[in-house]
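Structure first, sequence second, as always.
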């Protein structure tokens, strides 16, 4: 036996990532409506850079992901949500 193996079975103190099952919160709770006017709800599905989060991160089903993307785009178009994280002028001035 080598000295590297430990009795606890952990190597290097790493923890394994155990993914929990994801489910569509819109399918689970039918009372939640996806609307472009609910910006606080839509912000949860947008990254800090302003990108729409993919299904594998949010756990939404394909149907609700398409609906969600359309509503985020509507909210961006009428300036309820930003297209990017910060305006370009502020980034240049710093």
């Amino acid at each position: 036996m080598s000295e590297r193996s430990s009795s606890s079975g952990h190597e290097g103190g790493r923890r394994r990532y155990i993914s929990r099952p994801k489910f569509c919160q819109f399918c689970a709770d039918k009372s939640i409506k996806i609307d472009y006017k609910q910006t606080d709800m839509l912000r949860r599905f947008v990254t800090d850079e302003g990108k729409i989060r993919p299904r594998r991160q949010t756990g939404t089903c394909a149907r609700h992901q398409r609906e969600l993307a359309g509503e985020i785009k509507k909210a961006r178009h009428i300036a309820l949500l930003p297209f990017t994280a910060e305006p370009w002028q502020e980034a240049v001035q710093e």
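Margin note: Residues 25-85 form a domain with the 30s Ribosomal Protein S18 fold (CATH 4.10.640.10).
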